[in-house]
């Protein structure tokens, strides 16, 4: 077996190829003259043979057909051999024409029939011998009894490429036993020697065969269909892999190492959002755009989304030095921005923010800077007031002073009937921005949505980390549910809402169906190839301070009005007089110096009467 592992020296491959040419040419002469070559042709043979052989040798040397690793022969190698042999034969025919028509010699250098027979034999032998050696290598490397069975979902072009990738990769030891496809017209047919079945046959195939993996090769497969495949596979402890988008293939070619496990995020995605691209572009193109909290999960994605619409300048503001630097490097690598400014600063520092506005003169503001972790803010109410309320007030006031066109605030579903400090602080920030917007030309627009997949501190990265460590996976309550949305999806809707807003609206997003967190954890454990109760445990830790069992979105017909976009609605909320509420909020901010948490929270409840604490020391204030 060692001999197959070594790369054969090029001179040996070159010699074999020349040997093939010698054999083909001799065969051509024998076939042409029925194995009895006339004496006249024998005399001409001594000229024709070295001439044809010389042409072949020169063409092989110039094209480097001998330079490839034979055991990894690909369709590109075969195509190159075909082209080189074809050109060589064409050159011999051209030499015949020159000899007879230009030099007026009565006989061809090489008879045309022999050229054609030699051409066919040389092409066939050079390609087929390489393919045979490759097949022999793979069979010796991966005997059939050692191969692992695989099913590919998708019998289209991507499915074919996936199979060829598995065949090409010596280290995989995989044997594709079936294709599954939703196109029922393909069922019963075969693709590269592998039978195609309809989706309904997947469970039967998994039951009848020891299938290690089902590979989803279909690009842009709906999440619902992907969920069906995953649910079926998990019944049989079959792992599910996913072929990445074509855009991420290396040099346009799929590598086996790029085929990864299906992630829980893939199953929670929804159909692509249809955006009013022209309206968004008209709001952003050639404008100076400021994004606060630009290094955070939401802020950084807003930066990426805005960059697509060619602003004249993009200003990234955040306190986090290292993440901000990483974001700057990403922008330089992926986007051709005309101008990008990185600003380290605190939204609570009015002097620093005023200097930023005076220096860069932004026209649009996306305000994503905020504290968002419920338990952390429950234990630090004064900091939530300082950042979420004062920080928003500073940026909002400066937006008015510097005649900003639009101020788009990123809020949260936890501001709806808040049960915790964080949600209440965001609701107070909403109230201030909405009330201020009624008195000025700047358009103040608020967007609310629930949890985003993969954001810093969210449940999915936490579960993934716990699973990698062997558990246990901790869940606060067996019945707790949450709404989820992908970060890009949420930020696309932010841009859409920001562009459509007339000022004063609180836009809420269609978050889809709520997800039971326990089900989410169990599915993640199964996707990791582990068995719940045997390999890993789930432990219930109890609700954290301020945490609800169920999130509210205010997305019923009674408390929302629709917009032209099916996934964006306008919340019907109480409106406030700016002069009255501004004084109340200033009083609240002024309490920071006394650091009396009970006093601060009591004031928050007076501003937001619907704020009822849950599982918190502040529940006594609701009595």
Could you name the CATH topology of the largest domain? Rossmann fold
Which term fits the overall shape? elongated
What class do helices, strands and sheet pairing give? alpha/beta
Number of strands: 22
Number of domains: 3
Could you name the ranges where pLDDT drops below 50 across 5 or more consecutive residues? none
Mean pLDDT: 83
Biggest β-sheet: strands ordered side by side in the sheet: 10-9-8-11-12-13-18-22-21
Largest sheet: 9 strands, mixed
- Beginning-to-end CA distance, first to last residue: 81 Å
Radius of gyration (Å): 35 Å
What's the CATH H-level superfamily name of the largest domain? Answer: NAD(P)-binding Rossmann-like Domain
Instruction: Supply the CATH architecture of the largest domain.
Output: 3-Layer(aba) Sandwich
Q: Number of DSSP helices? A: 21
Q: Identify the quaternary structure here.
A: single chain
> Under the CATH scheme, which class of the largest domain?
Alpha Beta
Q: Work out the strand percent.
A: 5-15%
> Helix content range of the residues, please?
40-55%
């Amino acid at each position: 077996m060692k001999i197959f592992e070594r790369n054969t020296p090029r001179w040996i491959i070159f010699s074999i190829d020349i040997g093939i040419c010698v054999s083909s040419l001799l065969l051509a002469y024998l076939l042409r003259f029925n194995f009895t070559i006339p004496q006249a042709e024998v005399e001409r043979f001594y000229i024709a043979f070295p001439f044809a052989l010389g042409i072949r040798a020169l063409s092989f040397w110039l094209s480097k057909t001998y330079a490839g690793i034979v055991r990894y022969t690909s369709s590109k190698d075969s195509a190159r051999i075909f082209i080189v042999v074809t050109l060589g034969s064409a050159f011999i025919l051209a030499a015949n024409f020159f000899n007879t028509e230009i030099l007026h010699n009565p006989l061809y250098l090489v008879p045309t029939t022999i050229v054609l027979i030699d051409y066919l034999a040389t092409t066939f032998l050079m390609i087929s011998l390489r393919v045979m050696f490759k097949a022999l290598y793979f069979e010796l490397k991966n005997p059939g009894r050692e191969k692992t069975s695989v099913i590919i979902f998708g019998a289209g072009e991507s499915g074919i490429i996936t199979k060829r990738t598995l065949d090409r990769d010596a280290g995989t030891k995989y044997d594709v036993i079936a294709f599954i496809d939703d196109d029922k017209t393909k069922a019963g047919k075969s693709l590269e020697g592998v039978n195609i079945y309809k989706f309904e046959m997947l469970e039967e195939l998994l039951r009848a065969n020891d299938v290690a993996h089902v590979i989803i090769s279909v690009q842009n497969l709906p999440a619902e269909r992907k969920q069906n495949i995953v649910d079926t596979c998990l019944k049989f402890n079959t792992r599910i892999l996913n072929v990445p988008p074509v855009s991420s293939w290396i040099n346009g070619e799929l590598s086996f190492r790029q085929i990864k496990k299906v992630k829980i995020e893939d199953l929670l995605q929804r159909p692509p959002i249809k955006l009013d691209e022209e309206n968004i572009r008209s709001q952003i193109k050639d404008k100076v755009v400021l994004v606060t909290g630009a290094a955070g999960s939401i802020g950084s994605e807003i930066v990426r989304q805005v960059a697509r619409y060619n602003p004249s300048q993009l200003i990234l503001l955040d306190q986090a030095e290292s993440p901000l630097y990483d974001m700057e490097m990403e922008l330089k690598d992926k986007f051709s921005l005309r101008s990008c400014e990185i600003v380290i600063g605190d939204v609570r520092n009015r002097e620093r923010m005023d200097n930023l506005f005076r220096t860069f003169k932004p026209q649009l503001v996306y305000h994503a800077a905020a504290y968002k972790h419920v338990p952390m803010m429950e234990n630090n109410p004064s900091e939530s007031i300082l950042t979420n309320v004062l920080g928003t007030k500073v940026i909002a006031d400066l937006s008015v002073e510097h005649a900003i066109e639009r101020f788009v605030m990123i809020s949260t579903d936890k501001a709806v009937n808040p049960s915790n400090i964080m949600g209440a602080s965001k609701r107070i920030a909403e109230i201030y921005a909405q009330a201020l917007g009624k008195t000025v030309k700047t358009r103040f627009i608020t967007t609310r949505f629930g949890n985003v997949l993969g954001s810093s501190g969210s449940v999915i990265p936490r579960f993934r980390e716990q699973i990698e460590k062997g558990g246990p996976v901790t869940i606060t309550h067996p019945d707790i549910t949450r709404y989820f949305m992908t970060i890009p999806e949420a930020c696309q809707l932010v841009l859409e809402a920001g562009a459509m807003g007339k000022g004063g609206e609180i836009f809420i997003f269609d978050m889809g169906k709520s997800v039971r967190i326990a089900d989410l954890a169990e599915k993640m454990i199964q996707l990791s190839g582990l068995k719940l109760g045997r390999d890993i445990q789930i432990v219930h830790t109890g609700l954290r301070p301020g945490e609800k069992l169920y999130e509210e979105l205010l997305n019923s017909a009674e408390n929302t009005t629709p917009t032209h976009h099916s996934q964006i609605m306008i919340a019907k909320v109480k409106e406030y007089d700016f002069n009255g509420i501004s004084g109340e909020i200033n009083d609240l901010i002024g309490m920071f110096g006394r650091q009396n948490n009970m006093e601060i929270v009591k004031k928050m409840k007076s501003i937001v009467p619907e704020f009822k604490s849950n599982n918190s020391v502040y529940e006594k204030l609701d009595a």
